Amino acid sequence: MPSIDKNNDRATNEFNQYVKPVSLWADAWKRLRRNKMAVLGMWIVAIYMVVTFGAALLPFKSYTEQEMLHINLPPSFKPAGVVALGRLEERKVELEAAITRSGRADLKQDLTRIENEIIQLKGEVDTDPKHKRVYILGTDYLGRDMLARTIYGGQISIMIGLIGTLTAAMIGIVLGSLGGYLGGWVDNLIGRFVDLMYSLPYMLVVIIIMSMLPTGSNSIFVLYIAIAMISWLTISRVVRGQIISLKNSEFVEAARSMGAGSGRIIFRHLLPNSLGIIIIYSTLQFPSFIMNESFLSFLGLGVSAPRASWGTLVSEGVQGMQLYPWRLLVPAVSMTVFLFAMNFLGDGLRDALDPQSKNRN
Amino acid sequence: MTDDVILQVKDLKAYFKLDEGLLKAVDGVSFDLRKGETLGIVGESGSGKSVTNLAIMRLIPSPPGHIAGGEVVFMGDDILKMSDDGIRKIRGNKISMIFQDPMTCLNPFLKISTQMIETIVLHQGLDKKAAKEKAVDMLKLAGIPAPEKRIDQYPHQFSGGMRQRVMIAMALSCEPEILIADEPTTALDVTIQAQILELINELSERLGTAVILITHSLGVVAGMCDSICVMYAGRIVERGTADEIFSDPRHPYTQGLIKSVPRLDKVSTQRLYSIPGQPPNVINLPDCCPFFPRCERAMDVCKTKYPKVAELGDKRTVACWLYGEGK
Amino acid sequence: MSRFIVRRFLSVIPTLFIIVTLSFFLIRLAPGGPFSGEKKLPPEIMANIMRKYHMDEPLVKQYFRYMGDVLQFDLGPSYRYKDQTVNDLIGNAFPVSVMLGTMALGTALLLGTIVGITSALKQNKWQDYAAMSVAVLGISVPAFVVGPILMLIFALKLKWLPTSGWLSSRAGALTLIMPIITLMMPYFAYIARMSRGSLIEVMRSDYVRTARAKGLKESVVIRKHVLKGAMLPIVTYLGPAFSGIITGSVVVEQIFVIPGIGRIFVQSALNRDYTVIMGDVIVYSIILIAANFVVDILYGLLDPRISYK
Is pTM, for the whole model, over 0.90? Predict the structure, then answer.
């Protein structure tokens, strides 16, 4: 009956203009773009990435160069020499007042020192280019530029986050899909192990591992491993669950009935269909890696000098926060903004890729 | 005749604002329900039959949905204009509903007794003890064995068919004027479906309750309903008594539906008929007959304008250009 | 039910055993010891110390000795604090940490559910957006940032609260405020988001539609039909939350100088005070296991669909 066939064609054509077929990813992208906070998050993350990893190409100051005359300078748009001089003169006035009030002779030494510094600085301020520098975010206790240090700290923190996330995702995917696909004793063994790891207070395990390291070893590398080693648990559980539910679905049955082998089924059918959820969990885990790393660095068990991460910077900042609050606030705020953006991006991705998610919270 | 009409739905419209556009789930539906009558509303999934009935109860999830117009006159009052308190006095009391999936429609965390008693206490002002007795009676009527014991159990301890019986008992416990049954048998085993339909039929007759039976299966309405509305893409395309619809279907869609029901009385070697194509996505639908892409008798006018509803006699209407002014 | 509890209780024993064994060997394998950091000791004194702590014995023998002691609830002497046993150290610190942890979790639970429920009921209104932005902030800002910033503002600048200490006589309960806020922030935020999401999901569920169709008032629908189902996921979250609070308290105790087990843990990790680390790990594991245990039982009591057979 050709007329019916023709009608059939028309049925798909007539209303096609209203129901455009879109791929899952294009659809997800559309949903993500509509989520303003997620888009904002994406931009912030992108800017951080460009700035931290392009830092070498951008006109930033050295993060290691120390300048004794520039110690603990507050954030300012004026040249460093002017700021430092202003502060010394303030200090001089204070000291003089204190001396006339108490008549303490020991303060005289300080006064002479300051007067000498003022003379030295006045001599240099117009000639030495280093006093022309502008520290818009201030300097730290060794006279290093806070902006450069924060960018460098971000580089390390973000790197640890990235490598940790990738490693954890790899381990999680391999073990999760093995357990989920093979089932039986393999699944049991992995499951038991995951359960055991879950019942450990896991940051404490990292602390133990970090404390065991001989001092001076390459702590960043060990930190990557230590954090990744225990962070694959959730991903592996999620992947396992996803694989199990997909394993028995019709399309996998169909592939199997056409003679596809296990490897092909896992890599061509199961994993691509689990990709969304893997991306979601990885994005949400990324900030927690950074937090964990900084947490350890804060306790003095993570990245050690001369290297610095956001956590190290915050912990350095805490030391003098009453007098020099910018030393705490600059790295703390930079880090928080990044984590905030990452979390919004992660939430947005989850809503976009998994709109029916039962895991939203 | 008109005085025993208890529910009058006039030009009811329920729209959903979605990201993709405006979804006119129900777009100008009108029908009457008489006392004690059983009305079947038939249509494919997505045709708006469930939304019509949620709109009658004002239970459309909002946002994204809202009632965009029309009247629902129940015993002289327009439900759509009532206060929230007013509509709550009707829900579960004068008009009650049972839903498609009995597995998810009972609260899994509360005992059957709690769920039944709260309705009876609320609407009938009985104390808890009397309400419980009433609930047990209703369960017995609904064919639950040992209702005194089972009433203190949780929903998960019941089978699907038994849960639907509980739902029916709960819905009828205040002896409502109207029972809206939204695909009450779709989620059940075939053997149980007939029992549940029989139960609805029997209890509604006994209590004098009118029934609106929503279903996608003509087979279900055939045995049970006095009159039938056929819905397509948010509108009623044909309306009439069960006899008229089955013996003399007018709309090509109804004709197609009836042709596609397997029949035992005619031995046939032909393949079972099926309507070609898919039901349309009703988002941003243009002004046209939404059925024309699938219609074997489509004409040019069908593509440009929605057909006028042709009155073919008492309560018999059809919305198709083949009838009335178009011809 | 009681059989479930007994069985569940017995299943804890191998887990604990594995944890203790693993951490024992892990720590012993580490290079350097508790006495290697100080200035070089004469070999005979070193040998004396080693003998005193049985560190000259073969590893396996040390292990069995340690296990035997642990079974008698003796966690051994501290290598660093010469006069104190691990039992003393942890015994003094344990109540402090438990108090801090439970108060933080309790506050997080209370505030989190209140904010979550409000947010769900005002869905997509400004209250919702405000609450959820605060929640993301709470999740994003680490404790070691919140703590110092709170301290900077409220203790150092405004001088409303004491900077540190624990229930010391003069400041009293005021010392608790900042540590509790710092510790509870992420869990409060998470619980708020979770309860909001779960509440919204349940409000859309079929059985809540049934409840509305029965003519119940919206407030009754929420109270009787929504809340219980919506709060169940929160109960499952309490296990992980408790474990997170324990870890978090390590940092908070450090910042606010609170004499709890977290502080001891970090000190001993920095000092390689093995017996103390081990003791701490054991105590932490027991707390965690006990928390999960309680959560399981609680869940079973709340959800009638779960039966312990």
Answer: no
